[in-house]
What we know:
The complex is a heterodimer. Chain A has helices spanning about 5-10, 15-35, 40-55, 65-85, 95-105, 110-125, 130-140, 145-155, 160-180. By secondary structure, chain A is mainly α. Chain B has helices spanning about 5, 10-20, 130-135, 145-150, 195-205, 210-215, 265-280; strands at about 80, 85-90, 95-100, 105-110, 115-120, 125, 160-165, 175-180, 185-190, 220, 225-235, 240-250, 255-260, 295. The interface of A and B includes residues 64, 67, 109, 116 and 171 of A.
Amino acid sequence: MDDLQIVKLFFERNEQAIRETEIKYARLCRAIALNVLGSAEDAEECVNDAYLSVWNTIPPANPDNFKAYVCRITRNLALKRLEYNSAQKRSSAALVPLSELEDTLSVKTLSDDDGRELGKLIGSFLRTQKADVRNVFIRRYWYLDPVAEIARKYSFSESKVKSMLYRTRCKLGKYLKKEGFDI
Amino acid sequence: MNVIDAMDFLDDDLICGADEYIRHPIPLWRYGAAAAACICAAGGAAVLSRNPAPDVARPSDSIVFPANSMPDTMQPSDSIVLPASSALESTPDGKPAVIFNGTGLDDVVTGNFFCIYYDEKISPKMSRGEMLEYLGIELPSELSGCSEKWSEVRSDPDAPYIFLCCVGDVLEQYEFTYKNAKSGKTARISLLKRDGSSASRLLESLPKYTEEVREKFKRSQVCGMETIATSLKYSDDLGEHEMLAASFKTDTCNVSLTCDDLSREEFTELLVALTAAVTGNSPADSDSADFIETTTDDIIIY
């Protein structure tokens, strides 16, 4: 079923919408949640919460891009859960990409507005990069994929992926400074 | 909010783009096509011939399989089919040595020396994972045709060479990764089935600059064969790179060799050895001293 039809089911308050979402995006959502949380059990709960959140927000929300919408909700819920888990001293592999980014960009805690601006600037920067570079970066820092998984997916060596990420982070840092972002 | 949280504000198309993006690593030097492969077992020589595959291979053997034995198409998800006449032996050190007769080659690993032939007509079917489990070879969990993954298969670190075969993710391509056990450096050997339609499809799949670059390849005699090679310097965000590529063609096969890790000397050495093995000609017939020349700058390979 295409995304427009699924969204239509949500608007009709038809529970088939959740089933169709699960059929189409469960695997992707589960992967995102698992990347963040590192626990299959936590990931499963997170994905279920995401379906519920989608159910509760559509309508009134009417996303142009349903896939991104579902993924975004899953990721946000997973990150919130990660925050909780971290407070409970439960570690996750997702902390590694987080520290990678923060080591290079040295961004302090951001307000919502600053965070939004930073996200938009990162997006603008990534649009200037080649597809390989851009997608490797997004896979690592949006999907929080392990380096090995990115290497496998794109047929790069792990060292090449690490090198690409490092260089991209450095270039991004310069770009953000040039754009007047305080890092 | 931290940086990872801020990434949430990336536009939808960037997020979905990264999920849907498929990178096809298409080596530049893929044209013409033929079925052929040559494999060096430890201390052995690479041989290519029209002879049928042997029933049983031993570590000292060269592996030979017919140029016309490749299946028309094969995908990483394909199953391996075991023929009834499969032979199983052990190497002197107890490693499995297996050759399955069939109409083509799916996966080959030497060093420990086993070969798996592909035959879509004979059952029972086994997945690649099942096959390797059957052979007692421990593999990484994901067998996606990625040569780097396959390189982990090797369990004999002292083998001088290892050739790994994985089914390419495009068309009728077979890729072998050559790995020098001492230096750890690798090269890829791409073997393509001779088929007019597939060759034209491959050509279509090449980047548009291919024709332009191809004219600048240098032709030389290597082991009595006209061989074409080039060195492409290109740059990307990660800096300057050099890719070496060469190809030669016999009446039964085209062999193309690409690498981006080997030095020019190592590359030439490998190419001469490969050509000598395939043709049976003497390396002395090579004028390889100045074989590779830099011809083109600023080429984006992929």
